Amino acid sequence: MRRDAPMRAGNRFKLALFSANCSGGLARTLAPERWDASWEHNVALARMADAAGIDALIPVARWRGLGGETGPAGYSHESTTWAAGMLALTQRICVFTTIHVALISPVFAAKQLATADEIGSGRLCVNVVAGYNESEFQMFGVTMLEHDERYALAEEWLEIVRRLWTSSTPFDFDGRHFQLRSAIGDPKPYGGMQPLLMSAGASGTGQAFAARNADLLFMVAVEIDGLAPRLAALRASVPDRRIGVFTSGHVVCRPTQREADDYYHYIGSEMADQRAVDQVLVNRQNQQSIPPAQLALMRNRIAAGSGTFPVVGDPDRVAETFRRLSDAGLDGMAIALTNYLDELPYFCEHVLPRLERLGLRAPFSPNEEEHDETHTLAVSRP
What we know:
Layout: H1 5-8, E1 14-18, H2 39-52, E2 56-58, H3 79-88, E3 94-100, H4 106-119, E4 124-129, H5 134-139, H6 147-166, E5 171-174, E6 179-183, E7 196-200, H7 204-213, E8 216-219, H8 227-236, E9 244-253, H9 257-270, H10 274-287, H11 292-295, H12 299-305, E10 309-313, H13 315-328, E11 332-336, H14 340-350, H15 352-357
Parallel strand pairs: 1-2, 1-11, 2-3, 3-4, 4-7, 7-8, 8-9, 9-10, 9-11
Antiparallel strand pairs: 5-6
Helix pairs in contact: 2-14, 3-4, 4-6, 6-7, 9-12
């Protein structure tokens, strides 16, 4: 029996902490209080989030930094070994790994992921990404394929991993991108059930891949207006099951709206690492996730949170923003904070109770073992 119920069911609007495995988190700011992603800080954060009832931790996969004055993500923990460590040191929180399928052998990954899943007694979740940063591909000596072909490779990769997780006998695989002979793998995922799978995609090809293969789509949300029909159309394309949908965001929560707005201006405008912002713009254009005209308007968002959705305000405003996102059809948000350890206690003390009163989250006890099955995300794909 797997124990990843916080992500498979439970709260109507789920919350994950995003990108804490990387220096700077999501912020591209010169602010001296920006996140220091040391192992000790990550351990303290994971235990704090676990005790507070946060649903998951989601790392990014970075192989080189983003330049600029601060070098965000230049120091980053490899996501699967990081996840294994986080799982060993926590009790209930789900922990994702993020896998660049073009850079990691599916045979290696199947065993590595199953091992981490055993460490966490079934709390590992997997974020599959096709990759978009050509300089990282070059580091591995791998040619970066055209956008849609990267997803064709991801489809083969995932088929191999799932067969390794389920097959008790060796098999051959002959595809366009992988040719394997007598492939076999043990251990299998914990409890005989495959980890929850997430796939990030904003392009049509990326979303179609997630619709076919994933339990959870990780998408870009630029505005709340217009989000509901987008999500309705996405789910209509998957009539046989309900696919879960997450977005990413960065949160600045302070006692008053004025304080929150002032701090957001400070980190995203006054202290922006402009050279790092420029690099994010280049990467996002390669990723084909946001139209160029919109990217040009997003420099503050990029400096404050790598272009993710901003949630800025006092606790009432923050909670109300989450309610609107939930009403539009989102199942949750992966959030970043400028300094996770400094800011998470205030967020948990003041925002989580408001979300409970809005019916978005259930009251949490660190010792609870049962989970409400009402808000199941999706049935795992075979």
